Amino acid sequence: MTNSKYWEDLILWYLRVSLLLLLLLLIGVLLVIFKNALAAFSVKDLYLLETKSGKKFLGEIWLNSRVAEDNLRLRVGNRDIYGKEFIVVKKDEIESIRVDKDAVLVERVKWGVFIGYLKELIIGNRRVDPEISIVEKTIKKVEKLREKEHELSRNIARLSNELRVVQEKSSPSPYVLEELKKRIETLFKELDNVRAEISQYKLVASTVEGDISTLDMGNVVRVVASGKISYFKKSKIYLSRIWDFLSEYPAESNTAGGIMPAIFGTAVLVFVMTIMVLPFGVIAAVYMHEYAQEGWLINLVRVAVSNLAAVPSIVFGMFGLGFFIYRIGGTIDSVFFPYKLPHPTFGTGGLLWASATLAILTLPVVIVATEEGLASVPRVVREGALALGATKWEVIKGVVLPGAIPGILTGAILAISRAAGEVAPLMLVGVVKMAPELPISGEFPFIHLNRKFMHLGFHIYDLAFQSPNVESVEPLIFATSAVLLVIVLLSNAVTISLRNYLRKRYTHGL
Amino acid sequence: MSKRVFFIFVTVLFGSVVTAQQYKDVISSYPSYKPESIVSGTLTAIGSDTLNNLMTFWAEGFQKFHPGVKIEIEGKGSSTAPPALIEGTAQLGPMSRKMKRSEIDKFEKVFGYKPTAVKVALDGLAIYVNMENPLDSLSIPEVDAIFSKTRYCGYPNDISSWSDIESIKGWSSRRISLYGRNSASGTYAFFKKVALCKGDFKDQVKEQPGSSSVVQSVVADKFSIGYSGIGYKTSGVKVLALAREKGGKPYTVSYDNVVSGKYPLGRFLYIYINDPPTKQVDKMIKEFFRFIFSKEGQSLVVQAGYLPIPFKVAVRELGKIK
């Protein structure tokens, strides 16, 4: 007797410890990701380092577990001059190291950051003292001009698309062609003017070695004089960096700028997938649970569904590529868009096929969860409804389905979480490193299901394994992971609260 | 550490670095890009992962001149380019190696003519070791003996530990851990052909999914060696100078050495297109190549970490596109 009690205690303790470990692991993962993600945007001090052999380096200290203990890693920036952004110095070679209050860090859209000292601000043929407030005002001014540049570009894009449509007609009217060409040319001239105006603004700066470098203000995003600004200003910069990261398009082969298209792509993908998988999965489950006769056939189907859940996701990717893209997409192209061939419209990866692939991938989850939801509706309730004279369909529609909604939504939660985190199958069916356009736009037909898209999971993969400048994007990898986590958690939270609301509503009367 | 050693250390950090200034002469021989016609539409590129970043740079630059053009880029390995061109899912097929005979045949069977190969940039495939490693240079037969089990380049014995390399005798007797690319990549195929004399890789080579993950693995592993494009160099690694033969003079990955062919692992990077001999190629594609072979396009090559191609070659390559 005492022996079995002893064992029971032991097992109980084992369970408690496992649970605790699991919790700690989860918290640990979240901590690591969010700590690194938030640190990615902080304003760091600039250090001036002198080595015993008289070499000078100026930069931020970036520690990294992969750099050995006795080394110090500095981000010295100026990739256009040094060829790379980071250097490693042996600690015992350091003569002196101190914070340099005069140094500034210039964030640019090209060549990464510049780190050095400001010398002059050039506006046209005026040369001004580069006081931070004046520089910041100039950045704002240039930003306005750049917005104008973007708008002109957009207009040119629209008109040149129109021009192409006219040109592709069998007998284009020469008058319309001329007119369009003229309009585009005027816009191009305006664009050139704006660009010329932007190029009037220049920032002269020197590196730590004293070499003078002239930076185009059109490329400058921000100038941070970390030694001279207040704590309040630093946090403002911190927040605006986070905002830029979330709201901007990526630049410089995804090593700079933001991840807005990837966030957008992930959200739209998951949304379209949910719309596809839910009705399909629910109908299948209702038929299997309510109508189909129990027997070997239905059991076979159940086994097949559960096995589908165990198929590696990359296999679904292969299926999507072979079946959706080459077979269905190819057929659609040859029937509806033969005039565009050999350029494919639907016969290539895109949002539609990626969503469909993920829908198949998550279908088993939805079916199983829905079936469980259906099973949870008490028999008494069904029989009561039947006794009151309702037909089978009325019972399902009015009694069983509402009662099963929590189960259906559980399926949706699981499907969304799985889909948002998938990368491998997407690589085959339409995810790209850089998608020039968002899948939703103001252009007819507004939702462009044939467009390729960016995805957070793939973005992380791309940054980590294929970035040419992997050292400086390291913090961005964590930041992107954090964003992906937040999106999954948010969509889950929305579904869970919806489920709780419905559960209350429908179980109230029971 | 003595001053001399530190000096070497710093020159390793800065000396072998590929700086923008170095190529000023090459790039200034190119004309600035001037659009010939107004183009718009979507261009899709599917192919090399090595060229992925460069393609993105070009796309961003090209769209400045042609706001109506959208360029989509997928880079999962050079071997994905030929099927994409054949299926028509892409108009541009960036590849870090030449197409194989079999790939060209398949293309020809479908279209009746050969795909057009355009050399767009130069790349030096680099051999990376950890920064702590005292090794500075290797010869190709040695590289072969390190990476290959067949040793077709003629090194007498296998090199499996660091003590097997004569020039750094006494540094460490640890096993060499090997990193390389996966077999879909053109880098893998090129390395196999040139550095292994068409031999086979050892089974111990850890195949990485991306060019930069090879370099990162070498940063993390003190006793490792790996091969990847020079564009992926980071701090924490060292690029070895290479000699063609055992006992030959080793050359670093500089522009002159790659162009003259003294550096043995220099290679061209290509974009393959479907250019029917009877028809003119799409204006948009023509403009894209005119952009690549311009001052702007070739300075983006440098920005992405690769080497611009000599102007003479560029003129010839542009002439291939009708």
Précis, in short:
Chain A is of the alpha+beta class and 510 residues long.
What does this structure look like?
- The complex is a heterodimer of chains A (510) and B (322).
- With 510 residues, chain A is α+β, with helices and mostly antiparallel strands.
- Chain A folds into three domains: 47-103, SH3 type barrels (Roll), CATH 2.30.30; 107-249; 260-507, MetI-like fold (Orthogonal Bundle), CATH 1.10.3720.10.
- Chain A has 14 helices and 13 strands.
- Chain A has helices spanning 2-39, 79-82, 132-168, 174-198, 231-247, 260-291, 296-310, 313-336, 351-375, 379-387, 392-421, 426-429, 456-466, 470-507; strands spanning 47-51, 56-61, 71-75, 86-90, 94-99, 104-108, 114-123, 126-128, 201-206, 212-216, 220-224, 250-251, 256-257.
- In chain A, helix 3 (132-168) runs antiparallel to helix 4 (174-198) and helix 7 (296-310) packs across helix 9 (351-375).
- Helix content of chain B is 34%, strand content 20%.
- Chain B is built from twelve helices and eleven strands.
- In chain B, the strands form three sheets. In chain B, strands 3, 4, 6, 7, 8, 9 and 11 form a seven-stranded mixed beta sheet that branches. In chain B, strands 1-2 form a two-stranded parallel ribbon. In chain B, strands 5-10 form a two-stranded parallel ribbon.
- In chain B, helix 7 links the parallel strand 6 (177-181) and strand 7 (206-208).
- In chain B, helix 3 (52-65) runs antiparallel to helix 11 and helix 4 (81-87) runs parallel beside helix 5.
- Classes of the chains: A alpha+beta (510), B alpha/beta (322).
- Chains A and B meet through helix 2, strand 4, helix 3 and helix 13 of A and helix 1, strand 1, helix 3, strand 2 and helix 8 of B.
